[in-house]
Amino acid sequence: MEVVRIFVIGAGLRGMYGYAPYIHENPNLCKVIGVAEIKKGRRDLFKQKYQLDDNYVFESVDDFLSLEKIADAVIIASSDDRHYEHAKKCLEKGYHVLLEKPVANSLDGLVHLNELCDKYDKQIFMTCHVLRYTKFFEKLREIVNGKGLGELISIQHNENIGYWHYAHSYTRGNWRNSSDTAALILTKSCHDIDILSYISGSKCKKIASFGNQKYMNNANFDDNMSENCLSCKNEKDCPYSAKKIYIENSRDINHAVHINPTEENLLDILKDGPYGKCVYNCDNNVVDNMVSILEFENKVTATFNLCAYTKECDRTIKLMFSKGEVGGSLLKNEIRVKKFGENEEIIINPGINIKGHGGGDLRLIEDFIKLIKEGRVEDSRTSVKYAIESHIVAFAAEYSRVSESVVYINEFYKEAIEMTEKIEDTLF
């Protein structure tokens, strides 16, 4: 295979800017040949940006899927609730598939995805668990496996969402309400759960979680505030001001607000759109802080802290061994190693730390293309088959939070399978 032909479903931030640029910049390896996107503005921009033929530009995914196979692979970056459906249909057509996370936003979807993995085991079926492709987490795993600090005992992992990122995505944005998407720990952090398993080298045995929507909620809205930031007299003193987040700072998320995020266009859309709303007057219901305690089958323990109220968007971690400790920051691209009985602290800078999850985005799409070209289906480091495990743990974490109970993962998944079978027996 000389050039891998790629079709993209969904021209949002991930589809437009996450993976397609690498494909476009490596025409000797791969080529974007088409797109399906429901929003005309984004569809037209994608067509122009990647110089597509009109015949391969679709408003409806079904129109694309009604054709005979026109590409080698599909990148699925559609809305979370369509991931399972789109993946199933693309696999049935014979495409290799790269599926954005979460791979499904329901437990029954995970059950059926597992069946699809077994049925289409000759096709590459990967998910975007990009953290596995960062030099940072690769190095941490190397340290664990090298045994130079003895046995890994416990992990403290923090997903520092960032106050402005949480306000954008989980208070005003597409992932603000679990009834429309899913719980925060699934939509934001299923790949953090995955990386804990990746580093510990074991499956999660049980989990207990605690969390709530403590601050960004309607209870904190008062008469001195306005429903829209642009007309609020408290705007200048509010860190969550839409004007501060989108107008005064140039960020990639501005492209989610408007396809051409000039100041004029942003101001115009913030006046009436959801991204201009007061964070204390939205219909969000996902937690803004959550702590999970995990025990793995190899007896490694971990805490996972997921919180909106941080200045930086970063992942920080601490590993505690029998003969030392390791701390690190993905954003700083820095790992600090301290061995017991020695005064010297070793500082490691693992490697590339470019935009896109510390270089993980770039290395993931690079590997996806390489695996297709070489036909190495079994060598995918982010197979959906693996990803299902972390998604089940994320669902179990949310169930634990709501039910105030400790959840055993194998029992939880077994019950999910049984429930899915009962429902299908009733329907069919």
TrEMBL record:
GO molecular function: nucleotide binding
InterPro entries according to UniProt: Gfo/Idh/MocA-like_OxRdtase_C, Gfo/Idh/MocA-like_OxRdtase_N, Gfo/Idh/MocA_Oxidoreductases, NAD(P)-bd_dom_sf
Domain Gfo/Idh/MocA-like oxidoreductase N-terminal: 5-126
Domain Gfo/Idh/MocA-like oxidoreductase C-terminal positions: 143-376
Similarity comment: family membership: Belongs to the Gfo/Idh/MocA family.
Designated name of the protein: Gfo/Idh/MocA family oxidoreductase
Organism field: Romboutsia weinsteinii
Taxonomy of the source species: Bacteria, Bacillati, Bacillota, Clostridia, Peptostreptococcales
